[in-house]
Input
Amino acid sequence: MSQAFPPLGPQFEPFLYAIVCDEAPGAPLTMVSAIARSGADPWQEAARIARLPKSAAFEALLRLIPDRGDAENKAIAKRLFALLPAHDYKNIPFVSAKTNAPRWSPLVPAILVLLLGLALVSAFRKTPLGDAGQHETASSAPVADKANP
Output
C-alpha cells in the first residue's frame, strides 16, 4: 500500500485516517476512503486541500462528506479541517501524477527488438530445421508398380 500512493509525510496521517462518519454500525468511513470514492488520489487530494484558502478547503471537504444534514456536515468539515497540517503553503509538497509514472528498464526495447527479429526470421525461414538438405525430387521418388489387369 505504501507504494500505491506517494508518501507526503506524517503530517497528513491524522487527516487522512480520521473517521468522517459511521456509514453502518461498525463501518466507519475515513477520509482516505471518502477521497478515494471521489476518484482522486487521497494523498494528492489531501495536499491540494491543505494548500487551498480556508473557505475553498472547507467547501472541498463538504463535497467529500456523505449528506447527513447541513449542520452535521459543517461540523464534520470543521473537525476535519482542524486536522489538516498548518497552512504553510510553501512546506506542503506538491505531488504530480507524472512522478508516479512507471519507468521502463533499458532492457525492454532490446528485448522487443530481439523478439521482433526472431519473429521475422521464423516467418521467412524456408525449410524446417530437421529437414534441411533432404529434399526429394520427382525423379528420385519411388514409382509404384502397376498391376496388370
Q: What stands out?
A: The two ends are 86 Å apart (CA to CA).
